[in-house]
Amino acid sequence: MANHSSSASHSRFMQHHFVDADQQFDAAKMGMWIFLVTEILFFGGLFAAYIVYRLWYPELFTLASEELNTLWGAVNTVVLIGSSLTVAMAIKSAQLNQKKNIAINLGITLALAAVFMVIKYFEWTHKFHLGIFPGKFYAFEGIDHPKANVFFSLYYLMTGLHGIHVVIGIGLMVWLLWRSMKGHFNSEYYTPVEITGLYWHLVDIIWIFLFPLFYLID
Amino acid sequence: MSGHHISTDKTLLGVAGALFILTILTVGVHYIHIPEPWSIIVAMGIAIFKATLVAAFFMNLYWDERFNTMLFIASIAFFGLLVGLTLLDTLFRPEVMPAF
């Protein structure tokens, strides 16, 4: 028989193959960190491509970035930072057993993530309207550079992959909100909130780099 | 347990406030047009500082098991290897590949 003498938790989400709830929590968190490492390297390939093309065509990056709206990029940065704050608040609410505040903070996070995607939608559709498409579909005459499509291919790939992560995050937040309203989370058990929070903060960190690299080039 | 640090509102709001101010700062520095290569160094410096704040205090690495910090730093080191070895190739070619 495994030793279940620990009095740490009697949560119904405690799994039998762990010694206690703390071990289960730490294992889940380490697993999430290992996943985040693969995410960093996944995005890393695209960041490497960005670095190579920027060193090859520095004048292109300066020219093409003028088509991106710095204000909306900055607004989206603030929106994502705000959502990271509310995720951290949701975790703190769970730790303090403030069950209603978990749902409130997750709800605000969800709303901010939706605002981010709406702004992204308007940015992309505006570019499509001008004929700025990735790769060979590029049809915009306004940038005097033969490789202008390279910049926008990277832009669509990197902000697109980031956007997919935001959409997945929205799905996870809906799931957490539903579970929090069923009363699943408390100070003894809040692992899904914690590890989804880690994922969401990494999405924030990636945007923290995408914003200056694409929007803030002189 | 190390994994259950409870952040105070003061810490969380302080970190978020610092991130907001740094965002305003990085946009402000963009508009004063400092010359290359300093513009990219300042912008990346601010971004790295912001990312460190998020990782340390929102992702709780400051209070967490050191092993998780090690995983995070390892991923950055491998990213550095990827970029470094790629640049050793592409920066020292006699001519850039004509198709690209």
TrEMBL record, chain A:
Segments spanning the bilayer are 33-53, 73-91, 103-122, 154-178, 198-217
Main location group: membrane
Give the source's domain of life in one word. Bacteria
What's any one GO cellular component for it? plasma membrane
Keywords (A to Z) from UniProt: Membrane, Transmembrane, Transmembrane helix
Which residue range or ranges hold the Heme-copper oxidase subunit III family profile domain? Answer: 29-218
Q: Which residues form the signal peptide?
A: none
**PROSITE patterns per record:** COX3
Q: Which InterPro entries match?
A: Cyt_c/ubiquinol_Oxase_su3, Cyt_c_oxidase-like_su3, Cyt_c_oxidase_su3-like_sf, Cyt_c_oxidase_su3_a-hlx
Q: From the Swiss-Prot or TrEMBL record, state where the protein is found.
A: Cell membrane; Membrane
The record ties this protein, via SUPFAM superfamilies, to: Cytochrome c oxidase subunit III-like (SSF81452)
Which GO molecular function terms does the record list? Answer: cytochrome-c oxidase activity
GO terms, biological process:
aerobic electron transport chain
Membrane topology according to the record: Multi-pass membrane protein
What family classification does the UniProt entry report for this protein?
A: Belongs to the cytochrome c oxidase subunit 3 family.
Protein name, UniProt field: Cytochrome c oxidase subunit 3
What is the source species?
Answer: Fodinibius salinus
UniProtKB/TrEMBL annotation, chain B:
Q: Enumerate the UniProt keywords alphabetically.
A: Cell membrane, Membrane, Transmembrane, Transmembrane helix
Transmembrane as a keyword of this entry, yes or no, is yes
A single Gene Ontology CC term: plasma membrane
Transmembrane portions of the chain: 12-32, 38-63, 70-88
The answer on whether this UniProt entry bears the keyword Transmembrane reads yes
Q: Which residues form a coiled coil?
A: none
Q: What is its main location?
A: membrane
InterPro entries linked to this entry: Caa3_sub_IV, Cyt_c_oxidase_su4_prok
Tell where it localizes.
Answer: Cell membrane
**Record's bilayer topology term:** Multi-pass membrane protein
Stretch forming the signal peptide? none
**NCBIfam families, per this entry?**
caa3_sub_IV (TIGR02229)
Q: What is this protein called?
A: Caa(3)-type oxidase, subunit IV
Whose protein is this, by species?
Fodinibius salinus
Which lineage ranks, top first, belong to the organism behind this chain? Answer: Bacteria, Pseudomonadati, Balneolota, Balneolia, Balneolales
